[in-house]
Here is the input.
Amino acid sequence: MGVMEEGFKLMFLGMGFVFLFLVLLVLLMKVSGLLLNLGSEWDPGDIDQNSKRSRHGDEKVSMGKVAAAIAVAFKNRGDE
Here is the structure.
């Protein structure tokens, strides 16, 4: 059992470092202004001058919808 307990300790330690790295990466992107605000509308400007709105103009993507889509994809992954 000792080997398994050490393996679990290393696994959780590794996951913690990965999570910390991702948090720091997101904070760095926010500071540098590279992270897009997914809750706001995307305005492409005058790409398509014939229509008042672009294809993506009235779509709003929330983080909840993204998380739900990812969860459904993982849930349905084994049903092939």
About this structure: Residues 37-44+54-80 form one domain.
